[in-house]
Amino acid sequence: MEQRETYLIYREVQDLRNNFFLVTVLYPALLLWYIHIHILVFGKPVGIQNVPSTYLFMLWVIFGLFFPLIYYRTKHITEVRSDGIYIRLVPLSLSFKKIPFYILEECKIKVCDPLTGEESDVSQSSKKVSPVVILKLISGERMIISSSKPEELCSAIRQAAAQY
C-alpha cells in the first residue's frame, strides 16, 4: 500500500498554564526550596523531627525541580494534516495520536461544562466557559479538543475532511 504525502493545514500550540495547577505545583516546590536553604544557611533542620538528608534531597529533586520543570515545559499540540488530526501532549507523550478523517462523522463547536459534561450552543452559554471542538466519530463516541481558536480549528478540520 502506498503512502500518501501529508501536508500541514493547521497547527496550534497551547501552553497549559492554569493558576490552580500553578499553586499545586509551586507550593510544595517553594516549601522544599525553603527547607533546603534553611538547612544550608543555619545548618540545622526545620521543625522538630529530623528527616534524613537523603529523603529530603530526593523530595527536593522530584517536587522542587522535576515537577515545576515538567509543568513549565508541557504543551498541547493540535495539528490538522491532509490525512487526519494529530494530537500530542509534549513532553508526556512521545508521539502524536492520529485521528483519521475516515472515522470522523461530525465536527462542531459547543460549550462544554467540564464538571457536568453538559453541552450547549455557544450563543446560549451563560457561564464563563470557553468553547471547544467536539468530534463525533462513526463509532458514536465523541472527542473533545480544547482550543484557543476553536472556529479556525473546526474550519480547518472541515476543509481537510472535504479534501480527503
Describe the structure.
Helix content is 36%, strand content 30%. The protein has 164 residues and is of the alpha+beta class. The chain folds into 2 domains: 8-14 and 74-163, PH-domain like; 17-73. It has a 4-stranded antiparallel β-sheet with strand order 1-2-3-4, with helices on one face. A hairpin with a 6-residue loop joins strand 5 and strand 6 (119-120). Helix 1 packs antiparallel against helix 2 (53-73). It is elongated, with a radius of gyration of 22 Å. The protein starts with 7 loop residues before the first strand and ends with a helix.
Topology:
Layout: E1 8-15, H1 19-42, H2 53-73, E2 75-81, E3 84-90, E4 97-100, E5 104-112, E6 119-120, E7 131-137, E8 142-146, H3 150-163
Antiparallel strand pairs: 1-2, 2-3, 3-4, 5-6, 5-7, 7-8
Mean pLDDT: 83
Could you name the CATH class of the largest domain?
A: Mainly Beta
Number of domains: 2
Largest sheet: 4 strands, antiparallel
- Count of alpha/pi helices: 3
- Major beta sheet, strand line-up: 1-2-3-4
The outline comes out as elongated
Pfam family, one: DUF6141
InterPro entries: DUF6141
Transmembrane segments: 20-42, 54-72
Keywords: Membrane, Transmembrane, Transmembrane helix
Brief digest:
The protein is of the alpha+beta class and about 160 residues long.
Descriptive labels:
2 domains, 8 strands, PH-domain like, 164 residues, single chain, alpha+beta, 3 helices, four-stranded antiparallel beta sheet
